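Dear colleague,

Thank you for sharing your sequence with our group. We've completed the structure prediction you requested, and as agreed, I am returning the results in plain text so they can be pasted directly into your records. Please verify that the sequence below matches your submission; if there's any discrepancy, let me know and we will rerun it promptly.
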Amino acid sequence: MATTAKAPPTFIIDCPYCKAKVAATESGRAEHFVIDEDSGQPYRNRVFVGNCPKCGSILVGASDQVEFAGYDAAEDFWSDIVRVYPKPPKAFSSGRIPKVVSVSLDEADRSLQAGANIAACGMLGRALEALCRDVLEPKPKKEDASAAMLAKQKRKLMLGEGIKRLRDAKVIDDRLYDWSQQLHAFRNLAAHPEDTSVSRNDAEDLQTFVNAIVEYVYDLADRYAEFKERVDARAKRKKS
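Please find the predicted structure tokens below.
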């Protein structure tokens, strides 16, 4: 009696070349499990490797187990698979980038991979607005409780005003300002219940613009400061 060949396993992942969610043919996977020594909480993640059924590109995705049967839930539950290759999320080197900026950029990337372009624009606007506040708003010292309270009560800097002040303070140049203006317009569309849509190409371009602004304000500024410090140190040694 003839037996039918078993279909290979698949996993759902975003293909950056087809610009769509696809059922990639799985060719391998790896899994890691550990229990945190301090909290006793379990942690497990998986990495999937496969090929896009449309273009054949190699796709690698990662998923985290977020609920564990017998520990915090009735059954196991895993997060959606997020593509980590090719075109992984942008990585930054500066330690000055606020957590709210990093989290917003990560959420924007996840939204893009899920095809939620309007949500991605909202998260990108949130990231840039947080950057404006971090750079432009004074930061009270931890021990100054009254200043911290006044800072909370003060009207928060919004995106439109923030990007203008960044340009006026020469934190960004005119080109970065123009990019910021485009993001501001799309973020406003995302924030209001208008009958509109955002293409994936537009959302990806806006993501590239915001990544460039974050890199310029934090990573490149830090690197230039380190460079100047080395140059000044060499100059002092020559004089001595």
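Summary note from our side: The longest strand covers residues 20-35.

Kind regards,
the structure core
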